[in-house]
Amino acid sequence: MNDGHSSSPLGAEGANSPTRTVRYSNTKATLALAKASFRSIMRSPSAVVFTLAFPLIFILVFGFLGNGGTRIDVGITPGSDINNPVVSMLGKTGMIRLVKDKSKEEFDKLLEKGNVDAMVDVHRKVNTAAYSVNVVYTSASRDKGGILKSVLNNLFYDKTLKPTVAEIKESTVTGREYKTIDFILPGQLGFSLLSTGVFGTAFVFLSLRQTLVIKRFFATPVKRSSIVIGEGIARIGFALIGALFIILIGHFFFSFTLVHGVVTVINMLLLATMGIIVFMGFGFIISGIAKSESMVPPISNIVTLPQFLLSGTFFSIEAFPTWLQPISRALPLTYLNDAMRKVAFEGMGLWDVKFQIMILLIWGIVIYAVAVKVFKWE
Amino acid sequence: MEINKAIISVKNLVKKYDDFIAVQDLSFEVYENEIFGLLGPNGAGKTTTLEIIETLRDKTSGEIIVDGLSVDKHANAIKQIIGVQLQAAGYYPNLNLIELIELFAGLYGADIKPMEMLEKVNLQDKAKAKYKALSGGQKQRFSIATTLINQPKIIFLDEPTTGLDPQARRNLWDLIVQIRDAGTTVVITTHYMDEAEQLCDRVAFVERGKIIAIDTPDNLIDQLVNSGFERKKEVKKANLEDVFINLTGKEWRE
């Protein structure tokens, strides 16, 4: 290493040529940044753990655990007698949630998807004090239907009720089977996008700023927009690869339902792109307000934890107490999860989830308006 | 360098922060193809001045022309013809040297072969290493390699030898002289006067945001001697650093 005197000319070959004809390309600079950032993310253990390992672990755990804490949604058929002892007894079991005030068509759809586990139709028999109970189960929710069946049987052998009930008619409609994985996977996908968007973006921009990497960039002709867009491309690319990986593992190992196959996957990835862009906005804000790297996790958790818990990642938000539900319905992840489930399991197109997309869009506008104000370059 | 053509001209530069004047009425010129040293104590305004010339910082007032381009109007054109090494700047995390050079090539829009750039600073053996894993001297040489990617007319080096051992320092001097000899103007700041004396064609002393002396090192020393200055201790023909180099050899270890 003592050969400091290499004879190669240093640096100035171009200095003597009077004109530099090569035009500066912002695209080239942006792509160079995207490539560098993508390589860096792929080698960062925390990014890989948060985006892939955590969601996969949760999917494994819930995929094998199956259903805990059962709650059964029972629809009351329109036109059914409501003020009767059968219905009021069902309501008192605590396990059953009665769904009323929906049309026949709505109920049929819900039943087919397994959003309602069964329908009950109660009528007073003509000329007697007894009631006729007509129960319709759905194959989309066989296990819950089974539970309901035993609940009903218990009820009807109850002494107070027995004399008033004459008969129970039962039948089953066929629907698509709705598995735990169909609920859990979209939620985990949302969580993966949220954490990589928020934590990843916040850490990268804070550390690039603090280690003066960005300052060194500013000594080159690169534009600020190229830096943000280059980082964005890398982050979105990484998140989508992660999302695809999670979807494929879910589909092939846990039979995650993809109604229209590849089209459904593409729709999910489009939704994922919208989600990650919104979540990156939180990351930009946090990188601006955090004074040091140690402040990133607590602030990021303030953003991610409530969404993690309240946005229907693990439990349907309908299971939450009513006072909590408005909070859930204000969070962007709720709508991403909702749209994902509708697209994946119900086979809806993006136009069908336009309401959810619109809410995400509104969040995006608000978040980026704040980000532009608080983001710091130096 | 008989005809001294100015490639950088700074006129009446002032930089004020809220309650503090970092640079006041500073003027100097850097000639084409010289190694120009900005010397002075910490906080004298050296780095601020450099960063204003590098278009990284706004000035309060004054005029700066870099190779015929004004920092006010042509900041982007200036960025294309200069190379900048910042004090204590880091590099993109998790990338190796080749990948970092590729990144900068993209940022400068330069079409270069990364390995050739590393060869210029004798780092070809470290091509797959991460920046963090380099020794102090290697880090500085890598930083200098990134300043050469766009084949600049001028490079700025802010305290490149701080914290290096005598061998690494000498190795870097050789590199800087080679860059100058290849036709690039070098602007450097340093706290080591022996370094400035050996390396710089001209130096400027900055104190409290003002230039208090500017000339060749030789002339400045002669002026001082002519004014009747004498060192307290008689100067020997060698100093302790010569002893160090003599004992440990010129060969640079890393």
TrEMBL record, chain A:
<dbReference type="GO" id="GO:0043190">
    <property type="term" value="C:ATP-binding cassette (ABC) transporter complex"/>
</dbReference>
<keyword id="KW-0472">Membrane</keyword>
<feature type="transmembrane region" description="Helical">
    <location>
        <begin position="266"/>
        <end position="290"/>
    </location>
</feature>
<feature type="transmembrane region" description="Helical">
    <location>
        <begin position="302"/>
        <end position="324"/>
    </location>
</feature>
<keyword id="KW-1003">Cell membrane</keyword>
<keyword id="KW-0813">Transport</keyword>
<keyword id="KW-0812">Transmembrane</keyword>
<feature type="region of interest" description="Disordered">
    <location>
        <begin position="1"/>
        <end position="21"/>
    </location>
</feature>
<dbReference type="InterPro" id="IPR052902">
    <property type="entry name" value="ABC-2_transporter"/>
</dbReference>
<feature type="transmembrane region" description="Helical">
    <location>
        <begin position="47"/>
        <end position="65"/>
    </location>
</feature>
<comment type="similarity">
    <text>Belongs to the ABC-2 integral membrane protein family.</text>
</comment>
<dbReference type="Pfam" id="PF12698">
    <property type="entry name" value="ABC2_membrane_3"/>
</dbReference>
<dbReference type="InterPro" id="IPR000412">
    <property type="entry name" value="ABC_2_transport"/>
</dbReference>
<feature type="domain" description="ABC transmembrane type-2">
    <location>
        <begin position="145"/>
        <end position="378"/>
    </location>
</feature>
<dbReference type="InterPro" id="IPR047817">
    <property type="entry name" value="ABC2_TM_bact-type"/>
</dbReference>
<feature type="transmembrane region" description="Helical">
    <location>
        <begin position="355"/>
        <end position="375"/>
    </location>
</feature>
<keyword id="KW-1133">Transmembrane helix</keyword>
<feature type="transmembrane region" description="Helical">
    <location>
        <begin position="233"/>
        <end position="254"/>
    </location>
</feature>
<protein>
    <recommendedName>
        <fullName>Transport permease protein</fullName>
    </recommendedName>
</protein>
<feature type="transmembrane region" description="Helical">
    <location>
        <begin position="189"/>
        <end position="208"/>
    </location>
</feature>
<dbReference type="GO" id="GO:0140359">
    <property type="term" value="F:ABC-type transporter activity"/>
</dbReference>
<dbReference type="InterPro" id="IPR013525">
    <property type="entry name" value="ABC2_TM"/>
</dbReference>
Automatic annotation (TrEMBL), chain B:
<keyword id="KW-1003">Cell membrane</keyword>
<dbReference type="InterPro" id="IPR027417">
    <property type="entry name" value="P-loop_NTPase"/>
</dbReference>
<dbReference type="InterPro" id="IPR017871">
    <property type="entry name" value="ABC_transporter-like_CS"/>
</dbReference>
<keyword id="KW-0067">ATP-binding</keyword>
<dbReference type="Pfam" id="PF00005">
    <property type="entry name" value="ABC_tran"/>
</dbReference>
<keyword id="KW-0536">Nodulation</keyword>
<comment type="similarity">
    <text>Belongs to the ABC transporter superfamily.</text>
</comment>
<dbReference type="InterPro" id="IPR003439">
    <property type="entry name" value="ABC_transporter-like_ATP-bd"/>
</dbReference>
<protein>
    <submittedName>
        <fullName>ATP-binding cassette domain-containing protein</fullName>
    </submittedName>
</protein>
<dbReference type="InterPro" id="IPR050763">
    <property type="entry name" value="ABC_transporter_ATP-binding"/>
</dbReference>
<keyword id="KW-0547">Nucleotide-binding</keyword>
<dbReference type="GO" id="GO:0005524">
    <property type="term" value="F:ATP binding"/>
</dbReference>
<feature type="domain" description="ABC transporter">
    <location>
        <begin position="8"/>
        <end position="233"/>
    </location>
</feature>
<keyword id="KW-0813">Transport</keyword>
<dbReference type="GO" id="GO:0016887">
    <property type="term" value="F:ATP hydrolysis activity"/>
</dbReference>
<dbReference type="InterPro" id="IPR003593">
    <property type="entry name" value="AAA+_ATPase"/>
</dbReference>
<keyword id="KW-1278">Translocase</keyword>
<dbReference type="GO" id="GO:0005886">
    <property type="term" value="C:plasma membrane"/>
</dbReference>
<keyword id="KW-0472">Membrane</keyword>
